[in-house]
Amino acid sequence: MTEINQQQKIEQKLSLSAKQLQSLQLLYVPIFELEQSINNAVETNVVLEYEEFSDNTPQVENKENNFSDNDNNMESYSENFSDDYNDNYNESDNYDNAEKQKKRDNFLANITEEVSLQQQLLNELSYLELSAKDFEIAEEIISNIGDSGIIETTLADIAMVCNVELEDIERILQLIQSITIPGVGARDLKECLKLQLIAANRNDEQLFELIDNHLQDIADNNLNFIAESMKISLDELNVLLEQIRRLNPHPGAMNHENKSNFIIPEAEIIYDEELDDYRLAINDYYIPKIRIAERYTNMLNDKFLSANDRDYLKQKITEAQNFTASLALREKTITKIAELIMNEQHDFWRNGAASLKPMTMAQAAERLNIHEATVSRGCSGKYLLTPQGLLEFKYFFSHGIQNSDGENFSVTSIKEKIRRFIDSENSDKPLSDEKISAMLKSEGIDISRRTVAKYRDAMEIAPAHKRKLIL
Fold first, then answer.
1. Residue 87 and residue 331: Cα distance in Å, rounded?
2. Which site from 122, 175, 194, 336 is most exposed, i.e. has the minimal number of CB atoms within 10 Å?
3. Chain segment 41-84, per-residue pLDDT in tens
4. Where does the pLDDT of residue 324 fall: very low under 50, low under 70, confident under 90, or very high at 90 and above?
């Protein structure tokens, strides 16, 4: 006879609200795609408008006044979303229009390198300090995500392969879903579409009901049946269907399709002669300025407004406030990360890669008092225009090695030293990895011959015997 026991189990689970998910998704989006996200929000929310189209408010140029209608809501939302966000940070001065126009031409720079969806996800995870077991679980999940972005097996099967509980798989899956394109990592089409709606802050109960219960009816064009079942008119149904049609059933394909050939930096590091120091300039040229139309907030004071219309307006205003607050949090977070990089790497701006200081994302998170995953999302696909060229935020994060004098060197700076040794070597007698290791040790950097070989291979530099043959 089977014995049935009751047990109490305490466990921690990651639970994110729709507002939090939206903020994370907007933080993940690079600046070139942010414009489309904003345009979609304005298109789907009647109370949002572009500032230049405001009926009774002139366009605001001062960044401190942006989202002025939502300051109170943004502040409370910022506190509720995460105590980690520090509200006291210095915003950079805006450039005048002529200077912005000049920079616009310079910002269209390098061609991006295309990588697979799976490799992109693994790259993102590599910047998080996951345990070995959690990373193994993540790798197994990602290996089962097809090019469309949908998981092609069951979570139970993945749990069996990894020999862990199903709850562990679900926890890591939620992490993967939070750091990538909305909809990627979904278990089926329904979840894929709903994740996209949540990311766009369109978590309408009727839309969810339509997806949960009537996808096949939509495919079969049984619109009358759907309208009757949901107790709505055909016109109301068509409005919902239009929003469904805008979703992408294959979000993983976005990794390759319609991918911009251009990189637009989020910010620029500029040397200011008057200050005799470097300063940060945020690039907001491509970000549309939006606001909540005052006429709709005034309508709430209309005593003749019906209860249904009042509820609808309140919902849309709340969604708009959440969206503008998420935009502000995105800018704040990216600004904080960029400022930390600028302040940490003064020697790099002047001297290049050999002077790059080591810094991990965990260290940056501790310095900024935010979560490491937030740093990772804030760096993903984001670029800085610097005195040393256009560089990805992630370029500035690497582990370091301490020399005998207690001085820290980043892996990037060590690679640069290896490159310089090789560039200045005698072409008739190239430096061996053992010799380079000895040269580094003479500078107090104690790394083995094998590590030198690994770094050299990573830079795609041939070993000594092949360099001699080539020369």
1. 12
2. 122
3. 898 899 999 986 444 433 333 333 333 333 333 333 333 333 33
4. very high
Q: Are 121 and 176 in contact (CB under 8 A)?
A: yes
Q: What would the DSSP string read from start to end of 352-374?
A: -GGGPPPB-HHHHHHHHTS-HHH
List residues bridging with 291 in a β-sheet.
49
Q: Which residue has the tokens 């490491």?
A: 372
Side chain identity at 224, as an amino acid letter?
N
348 class by beta-carbon count within 10 Å (0-12 exposed, 13-18 middle, 19+ buried) = buried
Among candidate residues 219, 230, 146, 245, the one with its CA nearest the CA of residue 188: 146
Q: What is residue 390's three-state secondary structure? A: strand
Domain ranges in the chain? 399-470
First to last CA, the chain: 80
Please state which CATH number belongs to domain 399-470: 1.10.10.60
Region label for 424, one of left (φ > 0), alpha (ψ between -120 and 50) or beta (otherwise):
alpha
Residue keyed to tokens 């910010």: 267
Structure tokens at 52: 């230049």
The pLDDT tens digits for 400-415 are 665 555 556 677 778 8
CA distance 1 to 223: 52
